[in-house]
Design brief:
The complex is a heterodimer. By secondary structure, chain A is an alpha/beta fold. Chain A has 19 helices and 21 strands. The longest helix of chain B has 16 residues. The chains are: A alpha/beta, B alpha/beta. Bound molecules: iron/sulfur cluster and zinc ion (ZN).
Chain lengths: 418, 559
């Protein structure tokens, strides 16, 4: 089978080949291939560790959710839009909280969009046109291994034909694998992104004299050199990662970077875009945006959606003990959330829907295994640049899809709630 | 089966002007009296009430990455609560509405169809996902062609067969409805910071001009026989002096003809009807444009009427959005899209006291009043000019000089000298305004079963608590406004979805798409498409939307 789509990272490579006999995928990177390799799965639905039928597990899940005053529905970055949509409807019906993985990674970028907008482009535009690409706090060589080949570093474009015609710059706190592939590496002191962006803005707007001889561990000459590269680019792109959103300054870093892009566009063309992690973390924000108006941290307890990241993101809700049940879909908060949040998860009934066992499985009261989108089920996912792709079903399974499981839960919840 | 009794029907397509009539509905269609068993019919007593076809919005931005980016960028827009969850979905939104809110608000107003006016083909699946999430109405989307490298290539080669094949292929792949053109050539120029300024500027990197792009696409569109004509967003949008470019573009329709409909629809003309050389001396070019449109029988336009208050500019015209961001210092989102198109989004508000905004407001109305009612459809270019929920305001304004005088007294006086609005005595009749919001947009789009109440039409009907025989629309404008805001009944496909202005039932409409692949030799363009896909970031095999992915597809085959 051709044109198989990888449902691992935000690159959503769609050029794989699947050998149905050997059950192996070709062309994908190590990360992508490992997703297609056989892995340990949750064997059957479980309640309190005992295997039960799908119906029984779903019945129990619906009962827990319908009886909860304010359930938290969290995860969503590694499932399809069709499932996410039902999840949003369920959160609305339950008067619960919808939150997704972005709230612990790229959400500061979303806050920056609220302040300044997002002057961006699709990955195809970058591949075809960008003669300068800056990876800022992002390390695609390890996190999105084929990104460079398909869209950025060495991608063969229409107007920028190859690696030789493209300048690659890496700004990071340590020499990453990506940095080794770059034409220029700017090593900065941790937490100095904001200051460096400000310095670049000053230089580009003709106020270099206000910049001290060194900013965030970078010599002024080097910053001037970088600013020159940026000004001379015909079409430049900043692709930023968690290094920017999760270091000191967070959303303000991104906001500052967007202002830099606005400035550059006065004289040439530049775009900026986040390097999103999971294969459909973008969908986990887009779907609720059109259904209920916001991307994450959405509370429905008043019967209408309210957005407040400082209040309704999963970690905050758990920290405050402001939820009395949790539904975790395609995610592992136990492994990733701060201890204090996990502590509350241990005290409330948790329902997990996931193809694979993880730390969260260990404390879930109800566990419902699901089919893997892109391998056992088809559905829609949004690549990191918001380009939609229909991921495919390439092998048969008896596992139910997230969409079906959630629909069945919703149906029962509607009955229970009247 | 439904029986609407004793209503006072206004149905311009069938030349019915305020006649007392009964209407019968079976299987979602309007049928002859003898086709229903009256004793089995649910009866709606419409005595003394206005009965018209459901409204058809031919140009709005209701789905896809543009409006969704708008929502993400503007949470302040989402803080107006319209409906609390219960029997119906929770809905929010001031001007930018959530998908369910869009469906609900159209329905409450008696509108039953709306078209998304611009979608990048590569993002079509996103547009369709959002269209699928909108309840109550029928819908469709127009893919954009005016800056697509492949289109340029076909035109450079002067190969009409290829261009037709490309258009048919792309519409099929995107499950789109027709050919949208946005600032032809200008968006490609924007990829390197530029724009095009005249119809004869060369598109950077290509041996084509906007003039050629428009005429070639009209020709391809006509030879394919698509239901809708080319749908053009002109060059120089938002630039003082642009009315001349608009007139020149309109004249490109000369030499083409189609017995059924226009061959060129020029959209949201208000944004392209400015005289003067800068915003300091800007004036109205509406009268000149109206003269030209009225003198031709193959061009239609829509208003793009601004509404005072909040709005959000969002178009495929990426360079314009950047200029707007610079001009007003507002937030700015942009999306360059592969080798196809671009887009931009900028929040904006229209203030009565701002001379430019007042000018825009007046020009929209001038166009609505001065252009023949058979050639101008009512739009706000939602959400560019403002919310579609204010269509009743525009309807009332068109019908009442008195209302206009009242409104004029509240806006910046600059309008008095820069436009002719104050001296326009035209008062459109109810019949004309019903035409501009129903039968005309349906005709412009080529939707034969929409916008009228003849036998065989879709049973999309609005009943308003307004007796046309006893209402002086010129004087009783407040009543007219109020009545059109909130339908007494909205019937969609034969089902009552709104009663007394309140939602009573949730339904999902169809998504129309056009299949013209039999009218072209698709193979003629496949080698080029294959070659071009080296420059896409998706595989050709993964490009596009399959019919089965859409909730309720309605394929219209062109033969
Ligand atoms: S780069 Fe990402 S999407 Fe592509 S094959 Fe590797 S893991 Fe999959
Ligand atoms: Zn528009």
């Amino acid at each position: 089978m051709e044109d198989v789509i990888c449902t691992f990272c935000g690159s959503v490579c769609d050029d794989g080949e699947f050998d149905t006999e050997k059950k192996k995928v070709k062309k994908f990177c190590r990360l992508g291939s490992s997703k297609f390799a056989e892995k340990q799965r949750i064997k059957a639905p479980m309640i309190d560790g005992k295997e039960v039928s799908y119906e029984t597990a779903i019945e129990k899940a619906a009962e827990i959710l319908a009886n909860a005053k304010k359930p938290l529905l969290y995860g969503w970055a590694s499932t399809a839009n069709e499932a996410i949509r039902v999840g949003v409807l369920l959160a609305e019906k339950l008067g619960g909280v919808y939150d997704q993985c972005a709230s612990v990674c790229h959400a500061p970028g979303t806050l920056a969009v609220i302040e300044e907008g997002l002057p961006g482009a699709t990955l195809g535009s970058i591949k075809n046109r960008a003669d300068v690409v800056i990876f800022w706090g992002a390390n695609p060589a390890e996190a999105h291994p084929r990104h460079g080949l398909r869209y950025s570093i060495s991608a063969k474009g229409l107007l920028v034909k190859d690696r030789k015609q493209r300048k690659v710059v890496v700004v990071d706190v340590r020499p990453t694998k990506t940095a080794k592939m770059a034409d220029m590496f700017v090593q900065i002191k941790p937490g100095y992104d904001y200051a460096i962006i400000s310095a670049l803005r000053a230089i580009i707007s003709g106020n270099a004299e206000v910049v001290p001889s060194e900013v965030g561990g970078v010599a002024k000459e080097k910053l001037i050199e970088l600013a020159e590269i940026m000004k001379k680019a015909k079409y430049g792109a900043i692709l930023y990662g968690l290094g920017v959103t999760q270091s000191r300054g967070r959303d303000r870093n991104v906001e500052n970077a967007i202002k830099l892009i606005q400035l550059l566009n006065r004289t040439t063309r530049w775009v900026i875009w986040p390097m999103r992690g999971h294969y459909n973390v973008v969908g986990a924000g887009e779907v609720p945006a059109w259904e209920v108006g916001y991307q994450y941290a959405i509370d429905f307890s008043r019967g209408y959606p309210r957005f407040s990241p400082a209040e309704f993101s999963a970690v905050e809700v758990l920290k405050r003990k402001d939820c009395d049940a949790a539904l975790i879909v395609a995610s592992d908060p136990v492994a990733h959330f701060p201890k204090i949040a996990v502590k509350h998860l241990k005290q409330i009934p948790v329902i997990q829907i996931d193809p694979y066992p993880n730390m969260t499985t260990l404390l879930a009261k109800v566990v419902i295994p699901s089919a893997v989108y892109g391998i056992e089920a088809e559905g829609t996912a949004y690549r990191m640049d918001c380009i939609p792709l229909r991921v495919k079903k390439i092998i048969e399974t008896s596992y139910w899809t997230d969409e079906k499981i959630l629909e069945e839960i919703l149906k029962r919840v509607e009955k229970l709630k009247g | 089966m439904l029986w609407i009794r004793n209503g006072i029907v206004v149905d311009p397509k069938n030349k019915i002007n305020a006649e007392k009539m009964d209407i019968f509905i079976k299987n979602g269609k309007i049928v002859e009296e003898n086709e229903v068993k009256k004793e089995e019919c649910k009866v709606i007593d419409a005595s003394g009430k206005l009965v018209v076809a459901g409204g058809v919005d031919m140009h709005a931005h209701i789905a896809g990455s543009k409006i969704n980016t708008g929502r993400t960028m503007r949470p302040e827009e989402m803080r107006v609560v319209r409906n609390i969850a219960g029997k119906f979905r929770a809905t929010v939104g001031r001007v930018l509405l959530t998908a369910p809110a869009i469906g609900y608000e159209y329905a409450k107003m008696g509108y039953t169809t709306s078209f998304e006016a611009a979608q990048p083909p590569i993002g079509a699946l996103h547009t369709h996902e959002e269209l699928d999430a909108i309840p109550m109405i029928d819908k469709a989307a127009l893919p954009v062609f005016g800056n697509w490298h492949l289109v340029f290539k076909c035109i450079e080669e002067k190969n009409m067969e290829k261009l037709k094949a490309l258009v048919a292929w792309a519409i099929e792949r995107s499950k789109g409805f027709g050919v949208k053109v946005v600032n032809p050539g200008g968006v490609e120029a924007w990829m390197y910071g530029g724009n095009v300024k005249s119809l004869d500027d060369q598109v950077p990197g290509f041996n084509v001009t906007p003039r050629e792009i428009i005429t070639w696409l009209i020709k391809a569109n006509e030879e394919l026989g698509l239901p809708h004509s080319v749908h053009l967003h002109c060059n120089n949008l938002g630039v003082p002096g642009n009315y001349q470019t608009t007139i020149e573009s309109i004249k490109l329709a000369k030499g083409f003809s189609n017995a059924k409909r226009q061959v060129l629809h020029v959209t949201h003309v208000q944004f392209n009807a400015y005289a003067g050389s800068s915003w300091r001396d800007a004036g109205s070019g509406a009268a000149e444009i109206a003269k030209v449109v009225n003198s031709m029988d193959n061009v239609t336009i829509d208003m793009g009427q601004p509404i005072f208050g909040h709005a959000t500019a969002m178009t495929g015209d990426a360079p314009f959005q950047f200029s707007l961001h610079k001009l007003i210092g507002a937030r700015w989102s942009n999306k360059d899209t592969e080798v196809e198109t671009g887009a931009g989004i900028v929040p904006i508000g229209y203030l009565p006291n701002n001379p430019v905004h007042a000018l825009q407001w007046a020009i929209g109305l001038e166009l609505g009043l001065l252009v023949d009612s058979n050639k101008v459809a009512l739009t706000t270019d939602y959400p560019n000019g403002g919310p579609f929920t204010e269509y009743p305001y525009v309807m009332a304004m068109l019908m009442s000089k008195k209302m206009r005088e009242g409104e004029l007294s509240k806006v910046n006086a600059y309008v008095q000298k820069a436009t002719g609005l104050a001296s326009i005595d035209v008062e459109k009749t109810l019949y004309e305004v019903i035409h501009m919001t129903r039968s005309l947009p349906a005709k412009i789009l080529g939707l034969e079963n929409k916008g009228h109440l003849g036998i065989g039409a879709d049973a999309d009907i609005a009943i308003y608590n307004l007796n046309p025989l006893e209402t002086d629309t010129s004087k009783e404008f407040e009543k007219v406004y109020k009545m059109f805001k909130s339908a007494e009944y909205t019937i969609k496909g034969g089902e009552i979805i709104v009663k007394g202005g309140e939602l009573v039932k949730e339904v999902y409409g169809r998504t129309f798409w056009v299949d013209a692949t039999k009218k072209a030799d698709i193979q003629a363009v496949m080698p080029d498409i294959r070659e071009y896909f080296n420059y896409y970031s998706v595989q050709l095999g993964n490009y596009g939307v399959e019919e089965r992915w859409i909730k309720k597809p309605a394929r219209i085959e062109v033969v």
